[in-house]
């Protein structure tokens, strides 16, 4: 079996804990995409559907202040404020 990078690995290399990120969420009431902002709390690898994927725990800036899990692949870096010295960005 050939070992490949995790799904989201390339994006995860640029995202660190403390970074401000954005992502899109579908708003069915207006039939359009909403842009959401949040701060990265954790970036981790996990197995979903028999595949290793990269998941980020995000604290949204708007709405309930409850951390949510998002595929790291769907995040866009807005501002880097990550922890200094952390080269990997994920575990």
Strand order of the largest sheet: 4-3-2-1-5
Helical fraction equals under 10%
Distance linking N and C termini: 23 Å
**Share of residues in strands:** over 45%
**Main sheet overview:** 5 strands, antiparallel
List SSEs in N-to-C order: HEEEEE
Based on secondary structure, the structural category is: mainly beta
Question: Residue-averaged pLDDT, rounded?
Answer: 82
Radius of gyration: 14 Å
Described by its quaternary structure, the protein is single chain
Q: Under the CATH scheme, which class?
A: Mainly Beta
Structural overview:
Helices cover 4% and strands 47% of the residues. By secondary structure, the chain is mainly beta. The chain has one domain: Roll (SH3 type barrels), CATH 2.30.30. It has a five-stranded antiparallel beta sheet with strand order 4-3-2-1-5.
Give me a quick take on this structure:
Helix content is 4%, strand content 47%. The protein is mainly beta and 91 residues long.
Break the fold down into its secondary structure elements and pairings.
Blueprint: H1 9-12, E1 20-27, E2 32-48, E3 51-60, E4 68-71, E5 76-79
Which key features would you list for this structure?
91 residues, mainly beta, SH3 type barrels, five-stranded antiparallel beta sheet, 1 helix
């Amino acid at each position: 079996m050939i070992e490949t990078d995790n799904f989201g690995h390339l994006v995860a290399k640029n995202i660190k804990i403390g970074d401000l990120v954005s992502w899109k969420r579908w708003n069915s009431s207006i039939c359009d995409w909403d842009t959401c902002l949040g701060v990265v709390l954790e970036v981790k690898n996990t197995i979903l559907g028999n595949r290793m994927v990269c998941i980020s725990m995000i604290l949204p800036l708007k709405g309930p202040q409850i951390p949510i899990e998002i595929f790291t692949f769907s995040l866009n870096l807005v501002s880097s404020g990550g922890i200094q010295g952390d080269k990997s960005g994920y575990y």
